[in-house]
Amino acid sequence: QFKLVETGGGLVQPGGSLTLSCAASGFTLDSYAIGWFRQAPGKGREGVSCIRNSRYSASPNSIRYLYSVKDRFTISRDNTNGTVYLQLNSLKPEDAGVYYCAARHTTEPCQYVFDDWYDHWGQGTQVAVST
């Protein structure tokens, strides 16, 4: 059974950091494009970053970021354990929400604009940013 699990959420003060993890059960994510999305209370789901299938990690634009998180968030893969990470730095109150990872088995470049492009979703992990 295909299952994605996000971990690493929590409560931090503005300016703080968190590392979110996205892991799969029963398989690894190497051949999947992975997207990270977030949803704040009362708002729609917003894509923040994506990473292409690991085979194309050296390709231009294999990693993409929403403009408002670029230079603060970093997406990466650990191919030894098949986990995708999203490092959140310099967190702002507007970054708060439930963060989801999503996967699509593809060699195409990744994108984070259209969430229905992804086939599989995790249950989400809560990020709160507050004093």
Topology at a glance:
Blueprint: E1 3-7, E2 10-12, E3 18-25, E4 32-39, E5 45-51, E6 63-65, E7 73-78, E8 83-88, E9 97-105, E10 120-121, E11 125-129
Parallel strand pairs: 2-11
Antiparallel strand pairs: 1-3, 3-8, 4-5, 4-9, 5-6, 7-8, 9-10, 9-11
Task: Jot down its keywords.
131 residues; 0% helix; 47% strand
Can you walk through the features of this model?
This protein has 131 residues and is mostly beta strands. The chain has strands spanning 3-7, 10-12, 18-25, 32-39, 45-51, 63-65, 73-78, 83-88, 97-105, 120-121, 125-129. The strands form 2 sheets. Strands 2, 4, 5, 6, 9, 10 and 11 form a 7-stranded mixed sheet that branches. The protein is globular, with a radius of gyration of 14 Å. It starts with a strand and ends with a strand.
Distance between the termini: 40 Å
- What Rg do the Cα atoms give? 14 Å
Largest sheet: 7 strands, mixed
> What's the multimeric state?
single chain
Secondary structure class reads mainly beta
Order of helices and strands: EEEEEEEEEEE
Low-confidence stretches: none
Please work out how many helical segments DSSP would assign: 0
Average pLDDT figure: 95
Shape field: globular
Strand runs, count? 11
Helical content (DSSP H or I, runs of 4+): under 10%
Proportion of residues in β-strands: over 45%
Short description:
The protein is mainly beta.
